[in-house]
Amino acid sequence: MSELVQIRKMVLTVEEIRHEGGPAPERPILRAACLAVLKNPYAGRYVADITPLMEALKPLGLEMSQRLIAALGGDVAKIESYGKGSIIGTAGELEHGACWHVPGGYAMRELLGSAKAIVPSATKVGSAGARLDVALGHKDAAYVRSHFDAMEVGIHDAPRADEIVYCLVMTTGGRIHARVGGLQVSEIKGEDGLR
After folding, report:
1. Cβ neighbours of 48 (radius 10 Å)
2. Count: domains in the chain
3. Residue 195 maps to a domain
4. 45 lies in a domain?
5. Do the Cβ atoms of 115 and 140 come closer than 8 Å?
6. Contact, 150 vs 135, CB < 8 A?
7. Residue 1 falls within a domain, yes or no?
8. Name one Pfam family in it (predicted).
């Protein structure tokens, strides 16, 4: 990896959701988040061109996506939704989180193959222990209401003021007891990423 990408730690979390008070489904829904804590190369100063970081993060996006796929069983056909996010330490700025859009989003879409929908995103500036609700959406069609969800992520000691936490999330299904209608997974055409 580039000298711009100095990783202090990585965290992988997997949730297995069996029910939410209703009947247990045929199979549990799995949600996984992979987080990387990096030194922010632009912390404490304004830098006009921050795109070198965006380019340097591409291998990390692929590595984190591969870890998520493996954590969810290794079969990309079973992964249905995704999202991404970042928490920038207080010596950084919100725009440093935007450097994750391309390397995080495109890495997941590339490895998942058919993914057509935009990757939902959330970013904020925060202190160590800050939590982030990473928005989730169906990977092929943004209007699949059953997959509108979020996964809360965070790390107890990150980000420090001069760090960034970048996150990717994937799931094997939508909300476990979704029943409010809308476009169904079986109705996805996958032509434009919307329907």
Report:
1. 5
2. 1
3. no
4. yes
5. yes
6. yes
7. no
8. AA_synth
